[in-house]
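Two proteins, back to back. First:
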Amino acid sequence: MADLFDKLTFTHGPAMKNRFMLAPLTNLQSHEDGTMSDDEFNWLTYRATGGFGLVMTCAAHVQAVGQGFPGQMGIFSDDHLPGLTKLAARIRSEGATSSVQLHHAGIRSPKDLIGEAPRGPSEDAETGARALTLAEVEELVEDFVAAAARAEKAGFDGVEIHGAHGYILCAFLSPELNRREDRYGGSLENRMRIIKEIIVGIRSRTGANFQLGLRLSPERFGLKMGEQIDVARAMLVSGDLDYLDMSLWDTFKAPVEEEYAHKPLIDWFTDLPRGNTRLGVAGKLMSGEDCRCALEHGADFVLLGRAAILHHDFPKKVEADPDFRSISLPVTLAHLRNERLGPAFIGYMSTWKGFVVDEETEAAK
């Protein structure tokens, strides 16, 4: 078993100095036009200072109409390059590898935010989304590829394609959300086609040392566990990716589908052949013990979200104390400010039940 502080090499690009990757985290801190704010810059670079081997940005939308949240960072225009370039340089100066997560919210784009009906593989009555035309699917592939090239131009070591959580590429994988009758719908092979084309496009338009990852999730949004295992298997053995990031919500829980509930969720993916592709997992990893357990189950690295929000230096704390566990919730606003969360991010975390102390209630005690 690898140690959490062993280096991790990839087929392309630099090694991670340890097995800790900052998960891509929605934080609502950038400007309305998608350009980077000081708050976003400070939040991310503080995690590089804190010892994360790879620092990944929040989901950055590759089309203006693919925005999923207010204050989302963009990568659909060269206007975003100055902020991205500054960020990549700072992350590198702190000794971390860098990545941009490429994203399109699809049917999860709020209509009042993008100013029109959201788009997806098929019409969706619940969200009011319309189906992409064939030409628009081809344009979407191109915009993911162009965004990757833009990230490389800005100086990032790589990108991760967001194919999880019901966003547009995940919706293409879903037999429930994708009811197309052209080459992008029907069989699982057809529903995977858009992701494969994006991967091929990115590899053809970026350099030999540019890293490429993919995030998948196995459950919810009409996904079938067996199909997602097949997708993960195909992506791992293809040799096209440097790493696969499995977003599991809860790493060690039993799968929802009864057929797969006899072993932990993580094991369905760590048991797959992977060649030289690295495999990471995310989901409720809150202590050094949790992270070691993920590696014991066969993961190559861990992605931390909530633990990284609470402790910018989580890797350093685990290095100093292998039994370190994240601070208990709820936490104070002062704690989050000290961890370099800006007002917008703190406001967002305050909407998470039980995450932030109700200071008025505390003051009244």
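And the second protein:
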Amino acid sequence: MTELSSPLTFTHGPAWANRLALAPLTNLQSNPDGTLHDDEYHWLVRRAEGGFAMVMTCAAFVSQAGLSFPGQLGISDDKHLSGLTRLADGLHAAGSVATVQLQHGGRRASAQLSGESVVGVWDDPAKGASALTTEAVEQVVQDFVDAAARAERAGFDGAEIHGAHGYLLAQFLDARHNDRTDRYGGSADNRFRFIHEIIAGVRAATSSNFQVGLRLSPERYGIALDEGRELARQVLAEGTLDYLDMSLWDAFKEPHEEQHQGQRLIEFFTDLPRGDTRLGVAGKILDGAGIHECLDRGADFVLIGTAGIIHHDFARSVLADPGYVSTPQPVPAEHLVGESVGPKFIDYLSTNWDDFVT
């Protein structure tokens, strides 16, 4: 059994002090131009103070056209550097490894917020999105590469490429709709190509001390589980990534597809050869027992979302008591205020989940 408190080493960058990371969480707390707001700073630094070995930002937009929601953190321009540097310094001072998640919304971006046309993998009149040209796809690859280099300049230890949850990278994986006729559409290998190019570009543009991760959601969004598993197999086998973060929504569920039920979804990935690449899982992990189950099933680390919102020191509490259980939802808004969750984040939680805030 992997010990929760044992350090986790990587091919690149610093070791993590334990096997607990803060998941990337939408929180709407940045300024309208994507620069860091005090509320976002305090929310994240407090989790580093609470014992999480690695603290990751919310999805940060890599280009203005990729801006997806109000109050989203930005990493698309040097105007974001000052706040990002402050955040990296604060996370380090609190004892955590600091990571930025890199994202582009694609057809889920907001023209109203960005002031730019919505672009995606295919023409989507319902979303007001037009298909990227091949040259524009290549530019988005470069936007991710430039954003990762900017993260390293700001002092972050690593960056995670957001390939999950129906945003732009996941849209390329969508077998239902991605019928592009260039090298980025049609076959599975072509649909995977965009992600492979971003990984390679980010690795080449950053130093040997910089960690590179990838987040995938392995089913739905037009992604068949067999294809999700194959992409995971490829990126684990390549050895370019330091870690793969599998966002399962529920780390203990069976697959959505009927033909694959009878086995836990997590087990479709923990059995893959991974060499020195680490494997993390996320999804409804709310107590010490769940964490240990994920590690026992073969994960190298876990990413904590809800429990990390409710308790800034969830990591420290579980490390001290393997039987620790997060306070059940809903929780009073006053409790969240005491945990350094800002008003915009509380409003977001109240509006989008009817069982989070009393």
